[in-house]
Amino acid sequence: MANLLVQNNFSRAANSYQEHAKVQFEIGQRLIERFDYYSLDPQHILDIGCGPGIFSHQLKKRFPKSLVTAFDNSSSMLQKIKQKWRYKIAKVAGDMESLPFKNNSFDIIFANQSIHWADDYNLLFKEISRILKPTGVLVFSTLGPDTFKEIRQSWQGVDEYSHVNNFQDMHLLGDLLLKSKFSEPVVDMEYITVRYPSVKAMANDLKSQGVQHQGEKANKGLMSPRRWQQYTKNYELLRDQDNLLPLTYEVVYGQAWGFELKQSIGNNGEVIVPISVLKR
């Protein structure tokens, strides 16, 4: 059910997403720059949760000999991908927890700000591991538990509902990657803070990105004016020195290699990565 709700949210936001998803694009840019450190010659690349295809095109530009497949659960998002004559992109719609691809299909799997919408991380990582080539690499960004902490804080005491998704801790993600037959998972984190002039502006921006809380404790009914006013009053107490309202993103970056690198483990436990894939 949650996947259907996420699909509907992003389908409704397809026309406004590119204009409002500036944080997602900034995170994706930082993620894609990590390829600067590797010398890769991929044949097939998958962009999971591609949205309007900004990074699908960047991946194709960076690896022009590869076939890039843009994958999203929203057909409306896929329709926004512009087909540039030099950088043709394949488009596939589906559920990322049941990927419609054969085993060992991709050299690179890229997932920017998408995996946190999965219902089951174990199932998701097993699926990604299945379709990743033994020598391939998964590169992703997601959100950590401090994301939207100001929203969570401002709703405390207003009602009994949870208004923020429960994002996974980066250490748990690393453990899940190991359990899913990935080699050498590496995760790191940074905070990004966005500032808004009003609570309404922030709420409209998030809605235009397709970001809405899904979960058992989400409020599925109409928001009463009294609760909204109290929430807004609480949030107003967080204005900073510039008289703006902060919104925090805990951004988690991850990378893991295919299971073939497990065979390159030395006697003292270290994993030996072939020098041919390193640039510097």
Keywords:
single chain, Rossmann fold, 7 strands, 32% helix
Helix/strand-derived category reads: alpha/beta
Q: Which strand order spans the largest sheet, edge to edge or round the barrel? A: 3-2-1-4-5-7-6
Strand content: 15-25%
Helix share bin: 25-40%
What is the number of helices? 10
Please write the CATH class name of the domain at 2-144 and 167-190 and 251-277.
Alpha Beta
What sort of overall outline do the alpha carbons produce when their principal axes are compared? elongated
**How do the SSEs run, as a string of H and E?**
HHHEHEHEEHEHHEHHE
CATH homologous superfamily label of the domain at 2-144 and 167-190 and 251-277: Vaccinia Virus protein VP39
Counting DSSP E segments of at least 2 residues, the number of strands comes to 7
Average predicted local confidence, pLDDT: 84
CATH topology annotation of the domain at 2-144 and 167-190 and 251-277: Rossmann fold
Unreliable stretches, pLDDT < 50, 5 or more residues? 9-15, 262-267
Main sheet makeup: 7 strands, mixed
Report how far apart the termini are.
Answer: 45 Å
Alpha carbon gyration radius:
20 Å
* CATH hierarchy: architecture of the domain at 2-144 and 167-190 and 251-277: 3-Layer(aba) Sandwich
